What does this fold into?
Amino acid sequence: MKTLLQVALGIIAAIGGFLDIGDLVFTSQAGATYGYSTLWAVPVGVLGIIVFAEMSGRVAAIAGKPNMELVRDRYPRGLSRATLYASLFLTVLTLAAELGGLGFVLNYFFDVSVGFFALVGLVLVGISAWFLPFEWIERVYGYMGLALIVFVATSINLDPHWSAVRDGFVPSGDDTTLYWYFVVGLIAAAFMPYEIYFYSSGAIEEKWGKKDITVNRLNAIVGFGLGGILAVGVIVAATLTLLPRGITPDSIGTVALIGQVPYGETGLVFALIGILFALGGATIDCAFSAAYNLAQHEGWKWGKRGGLEREPKFVMSLAGFAVLAYAIVQTGVDPVQLTEYAVIFSMPVLPLTYLPVLLAGNDRNLMGDQVNGLLARGLGWIYFVLICGLAVAAPILFVATNGG
It folds into this structure.
C-alpha cells in the first residue's frame, strides 16, 4: 500500500498531461474521426515522457535541481529568460482553460453558471493548495482522477474488434493533413512543459534522494503508463460510440456522455467525477508549475515543504497566476480551444524545456553513478530529435488544418 501511495506524483502529472480539458476533447475527436488508426501515437508519446520524467526525477533526487533551475544554470541569461517567459505564458493559458473546464463540469452538476463555478473551482483548488500537504494533493486529485477508468471499461464492455484495435497500434500510412495533425497532437500532449516542471519540482517537494530512485522509476512508468492507458480508452470508446453516429465532440459534456452508453447514469457520473478531478489536478499542476518556475529562476524560496506562510513571494506569484487565469476565463474564451492553442504553441518551447534535463542526466560530474546509462542516453537523444520535429510540424499542421 505504501508503494502504491508513492506513485501519486506520476499519476497526477500524467492525468493532467494526457487528460486535461483540451486533451479529453482532442483525443475523443481522434477516435470519432479516424477510429483506431491514431492509437499508435499514444505509446510513442508515453514512452518519451516516461524517459524524460524518470530522468528529471533522478536529476532532482541526486542533484537537488528541478527543471527550471537546470534551464537557468545551463542557458545564457537571455535564453533562460525567454524559456521562462514562454513557459509562464503557455502555463497560464492552460491554467485558464482548466479553470474554465472546472466551471463547465461543476455546472453540469448544479446548473447555475459556468463563470460562477469557475470561481468556485478556483477557491476549492486554492483551499487544497493551502491546507493539504503536497503528497495529499497528489493522492486526492491523482487517484480520484482515476475514475476516468470508466472509458477503459466502456471500451471493453462494448466488445470492439480486438484485431482492429491491435492494428491501430501500427502506423497506418494515412497521408491526409488532418490525420497527421491528430497524430502530432496526441504525441505532443504527452510532453506539455508544465508536466515536467511540476514532476521535477514535486520530487524536491517529496524530498527524494538516492534511496528514492526506485520510487521515481515507478512514478514515471506506472503514472504516465496509466495516463496512456486512459487516453487509449478514450480513443477506443469514442470510436465505438461516436464514430458510428457521426458525432465529433466539441465539448467536455459530449465526452462525458460516452460513459453513459453502456452504464447509464452511473457511467455518466463516473465520467464527470473523473473529469472533475483530472481538471482539478491539471489546475493545480499548472498553478504550481508557473509559481515554481518563476521562483526557481529568480532564486526565491518556494514550495510547500517549508510552509507556504514562510515563502511570501512564491505564494503571491501562485495567487497572481491563478487570478490572471481566472480573468482570462471571464472573457468567455472557449477553454477547449484555449488548451489546444496552448498545446500547439508550446511545441517550439519543448526543445528548450527538455534539453537541460538530457544534458544534466548525461553529466557524470553532476550525477555520479546515477548518470544516464546507454539506454536512457540513446532514447533521450532520439526523443529530443522527435521533439524538435514536433516543434516544427505542429504549428504548420495547425495552420494547414485551420486548427483541426
In short: Residues 2-400 form a domain with the Amino acid/polyamine transporter I fold (CATH 1.20.1740.10). The chain has a mean pLDDT of 87. The first helix runs from residue 2 to 6. The radius of gyration is 20 Å.
